[in-house]
Amino acid sequence: MKELQRSMEAREMYFANLSWPEIEARLKAKYQTVLLFPVGATEAHGPHSPLGTDSIISLGMCHRAVRELEDDPEVRALILPPLAYGVTRYAGGFPGTIHISEATLQALIIDVCTSLSRMGFPYIILVNNHFEPEHVQTLHGSIDALIAETGVQVGYVDLTRRERAQALTEEFKKAECHAGRYETSLVLAERPELVDEAVMQTLPYVPVSLVQQIGQGIKEFRQMGLNLAYNGAPAEASAAEGEMIYGILTNMLVTAARELVHGRDGRDLPGFYNRVALNPK
Ligand SMILES: [Zn+2]
Q1: For residue 222, what are the contacts with CB-CB under 8 A and spacing of at least 6?
Q2: Which of 63, 107, 112, 276 is 20 to 30 A away from residue 141, measured at CA?
Q3: Cα separation of 262 and 278, whole Å?
Q4: Gap from CA of 56 to ligand 1 centroid (Å)
Q5: Ligand 1 centre distance from Cα of residue 220 (Å)
């Protein structure tokens, strides 16, 4: 299994591992290359899971999507260097959380995607797993600006949309999903060495719905009742469940990549979290 995983981490999966002639060859290929832009945050994820949890999950989705499209005659994928910083105020009271402003995030996404579009790559998908409303809203704003200004096709699977969440696990549907069973399972499936399983097993269930708390206008984890920067039930996490969830997430991502190339959008419109953020009480 270890060996298999190593071979899947092939050099060709990553944009930045290639040389410029290899990128040139990609641009001239018969198939279309969709660039996957992994986005996350560096922020507190409980006492058991790494600060980079969200980026690790985004990369896990990207790895699996690239593999699934590896021999596709029409659509292939390549992973851009990840953006491991996000708008992250809720976890700001915990050491390790690095916040960047909405303006910085938007400018960075627009600059990177504009540069790639000028290079000749018309298809990019933002692969995000940090769900703070102001962060998700900024991603949508960046996509709107890019489409209006450059014509680059930017896809996005917004997991905060109801129909997306419905396809995921019970914990995710209840929005008890910050470093809980859902996220911890995904990290266990991708980077098991980064989860402190001894600590994980001692953590009690924290039944707090982020959607409810955010809906009430609360914007800080401790005030929400996430005293150790997690909710849900991390003690119940497993790599097997993580792999099962990756199956669903990867399917969504691959479908979005195909839709993007075939001119059928591939971009979700803002969901619940965004409406909350747009209408603050
Ligand atoms: Zn997270």
Answers
A1: 93
A2: 63
A3: 31
A4: 9
A5: 15
Q: Residue 278 is encoded by which pair of tokens?
A: 């747009």
How much distance in Å is there from the Cα of 175 to the middle of ligand 1?
Answer: 11
Ligand 1 centroid vs 122 CA: distance in angstroms? Answer: 29
Q: Round to whole Å and give the CA distance between 94 and 43.
A: 8
What spacing in Å lies between the alpha carbon of 264 and ligand 1's midpoint? 29
Instruction: State in Å: Cα 10 to ligand 1 middle.
Output: 26
Strand-pairing partners, residue 156, are 126, 267
pTM of the model: 0.92
User: How many angstroms separate the alpha carbon of residue 42 from the centre of ligand 1?
Assistant: 9
- Mean pLDDT for 217-225 is 93
Rounded to the nearest angstrom, the distance between the alpha carbon of 71 and the centre of ligand 1 is 31
pLDDT digits (tens, 9 = 90+) for 160-201: 888 888 888 888 888 888 999 999 999 999 999 999 999 999
* Residue 100 CA to ligand 1 centre (angstroms): 16
* Main-chain dihedrals φ then ψ at residue 232, nearest 5 degrees: 75, -155
Average pLDDT across the chain, whole number: 91
pLDDT above 90: residue 87: yes
Q: In angstroms, what is the span from residue 164 Cα to ligand 1's centroid?
A: 17
Q: For residue 130, how far is its CA from the centre of ligand 1 (angstroms)?
A: 5
Cα dihedral: 175, 180, 181, 186 (round 10): 100
User: 218 falls in which pLDDT band (50, 70, 90)?
Assistant: very high
**Positive or negative torsion for Cα 200, 7, 249, 212:** positive
Measured torsion, CA atoms of residues 218, 278, 136, 68, in degrees rounded to the nearest 10? 120
Residues 229-270: tens digit of each pLDDT: 999 999 999 999 999 999 999 999 999 999 999 987 788 888
Distance 265 CA to ligand 1 centre (A): 26
